[in-house]
Design goal:
660 residues, alpha+beta, Rossmann fold, Beta-Lactamase, 7-stranded antiparallel beta sheet, 5-stranded parallel beta sheet, 21 helices, 24 strands, 45% helix, 25% strand, rod-shaped
Length: 660
């Protein structure tokens, strides 16, 4: 009932004239005025309408006012309805008390004063209106409370369902979950996955001290305050991905990846923490296995690489770094075969087609290193369909191919040496006969002086041919035991073999023999050393120059061991700085197609058998250069030379070496 809503006023009197007068007086109140001429009619109106005030005559024929009031009060609905008695006769105090007991709230005596009647009625009208408003508000409040109660009951039901669902989810989660409900983390509960991983009964306290766990980060033992849940509580911040190791009471170790977050109450105070525990033991074991395999790949001498189908490099091991010269960081993401300038034996598209069809391919490739060196590699390729990548394993076979080629060349030279020995042997006998014939011809009486001169000249040249023949035979026929030799004589023989080349290259020869250089050894292999050194010096001076050969008795440069030093100095093109460190390596040559790269390597090996040394020094400037090779040979006793004999063998093959 709003404030402007009219209320009902019931007027009861058996005299219509009085009802009319009451209506006139109360009409100013602007309320609904209902008239009744008897008690029965009044009761009927009460049942039909919500009556605020009953204005009732005390003296009525059928039912008087007291009886009427008593009947009204007996009904629960009308127990608080205001009743005002109007009486035309004088009422005693006893009558008034009786009326009040029957439910009357006031008395008005006749004659009625209009202002008094309106005032009294208006008071009860407003009281009724306020009461009805309060009842309505109370009813609305009750309705709202009921609605809110239903909402809260529904929310509680949903919350209970969610809590039940979360508890179920926690129990079935494969990851471990732990909850500390107090700020000191004295009692920690975990779900099924966590209790199973830590081998504790469900519901048992997972506090590290209570459960007798030992927790490590790396090799350091963690204190209780440094554990993830405790740190989350202490800092009020989330702890992300803390990797720890938990050692159980039975000695088993479990690797865990832990994240923890603090829990707050309604005041923002930390009340506990929750943590997620992921068992990464299998992952750690797999990482260890993969790390071991990766280490094996790094230890492999072969170049092992992984590329995608577009050629971009994804993996590059230490073997690849060693072979090609580029580091892993420099090549990742680059095109492999563009970087290595690969030359394929067949079209690259055919190789790729074979890879995708059969899953593998093998063959030889020619590639270039970072320094520009050309290498030949035996490659095996395997295609991984799942990752769409190609694994390539390359093994450097350049040295093997060069060795095979050197072996072929050496075998050719050895065959030529044998043939030369056979030819020299066959020529030697006729040469002796011809020499004897020229000796007889030179003394024949029929020749004049000029003829004798030419016969003598022919005999001298024939003697020289015989000497060359004997030298050729000496190269083929090596002694089985060391013999006494002279370095000066041996060098003369070598220089005589190179005499024509020295003359053709217009080289000025200077010999400085400060000692005979006598010792015991094997002439053939020592001749091979000096043939190689002097031959290299001549090749270094195609436009002429100076060649100086020195022999002197000397002591070892690191001690007092007596020995023989042979120095060969040329004014040729010199040795490049970048070639110097490779000079004595097998198969290294600066002569391209002409050299095998074995000459200096074999020469050093021969000298080392005598416990000697071979060293070099090269000086270069803009206009001139000079290179000196120095061979030091310690003076060996006959017994030591015999030891060298057993190690050296009798058949050392001649090979060409190279230098810049």
């Amino acid at each position: 009932m709003g404030e402007a809503e009219k209320v009902n006023i019931l007027m009861v009197d058996d005299q219509p004239s009085k009802l009319l007068s009451y209506e006139v007086i109360l009409s100013e109140l602007g309320e609904n005025l209902i008239k009744a001429t008897s008690g029965r009619e009044a009761l009927d109106q009460l049942l039909k309408n919500d009556i605020a005030v009953v204005l009732m005559d005390v003296s009525m024929p059928e039912i008087d006012g007291f009886e009427m009031a008593d009947m009204i009060r007996q009904h629960p609905r009308f127990q608080k309805t205001a009743i005002i008695f109007i009486s035309g006769v004088h009422l005693s105090d006893e009558d008034r008390i009786q009326g009040y007991r029957r439910g009357a709230v006031d008395y008005i005596s006749v004659p009625v004063v209009p202002e008094v009647l309106r005032s009294k009625v208006s008071v009860f009208v407003e009281l009724h209106r306020k009461t009805r408003q309060l009842e309505r508000l109370n009813r609305e409040l009750e309705e709202r409370v009921e609605e809110r109660t239903q909402e809260i009951r529904g929310l509680n039901t949903q919350l209970e369902q969610r809590v039940s669902e979360l508890e179920t989810v926690m129990q079935v989660l494969p990851a471990g979950v732990a909850i500390a409900r107090d700020p000191n983390c004295e009692y920690i509960v975990g779900n099924t996955a966590l209790t199973r991983a830590l081998q504790v009964p469900p519901g048992e306290n997972l506090n590290a001290s209570s459960a007798q766990f030992h927790v490590f980060r790396g090799k350091d033992v963690l204190a209780l305050d440094d554990l993830p849940l405790q740190r989350a509580v202490a800092t009020g911040k989330t702890i992300q991905a803390d990797e720890i190791l938990i050692r159980l009471p039975n000695g088993k170790e479990v690797d865990m990846l832990v994240s923890a977050s603090p829990l707050f109450d309604e005041n923002g105070t930390v009340r506990g923490a929750v943590g997620a525990f992921i068992d990464v033991s299998q992952r750690k074991q797999m990482e260890d296995i993969l790390r071991e395999r990766a280490d094996l790949l790094e230890l492999a001498t072969e170049a092992i690489m992984v590329r995608d189908m577009q050629g971009a490099i994804q993996y590059w091991n230490a073997g690849a770094e060693s072979l090609y010269g580029w580091s892993r960081k420099e090549v990742i993401g680059k095109s492999m075969h563009n970087l290595l300038k690969t030359t394929f034996p067949i079209p690259h598209s055919e190789i790729e087609a074979t890879l995708t069809t059969l899953g593998f391919w093998d063959g030889n490739l020619v590639q270039q290193t970072r320094e520009g060196r050309t290498v030949t590699v035996a490659t095996r390729k395997a295609y991984n369909r799942e990752r769409n990548v190609v694994l390539e394993i390359n093994r450097d076979i350049t040295a093997r191919l060069q060795a095979e080629e050197a072996l072929r060349q050496t075998e050719k030279l050895a065959a030529m040496g044998r043939v030369a020995g056979i030819i020299a042997h066959e020529i030697n006998n006729p040469l002796e006969a011809i020499t004897n014939a020229f000796f007889l011809l030179r003394e024949h009486a029929s020749l004049d002086e000029e003829a004798r001169y030419y016969a003598s000249l022919a005999e001298q040249e024939l003697t020289r041919v015989a000497h060359i023949t004997r030298q050729t035979l000496s190269f083929y026929r090596e002694a089985k035991q060391p013999v006494k030799l002279s370095f000066s004589a041996l060098l003369d023989d070598v220089l005589e073999l190179h005499a024509r080349r020295i003359q053709l290259h217009r080289i000025k020869l200077e010999k400085r023999y400060f000692a005979e250089g006598e010792m015991r050894g094997f002439p053939v292999e020592l001749k091979q050393v000096f043939l190689n050194l002097i031959g290299n010096a001549i090749q270094a001076m195609p436009e002429g120059g100076k060649l100086r050969v020195t022999v002197r008795a000397t002591g070892h440069h690191n001690g007092n061991v007596p020995g023989i030093s042979v120095s060969i100095v040329d004014t040729g093109c010199g040795i490049k700085k970048e070639d110097a460190r490779h000079l004595f390596e097998p198969f290294f040559t600066t002569k391209a197609e002409k050299g095998t790269g074995l000459g200096l390597w074999i020469s050093r090996g021969i000298i080392q058998k005598y416990e000697g040394t071979i060293r070099f020094r090269s000086l270069r400037n803009n206009r001139e250069s000079a290179t000196c090779f120095r061979v030091f040979m310690p003076l060996l006793s006959a017994e030591s030379a015999a030891t060298v004999s057993s190690e050296a063998g009798a058949n050392i093959k001649v090979a060409q070496g190279g230098r810049g």
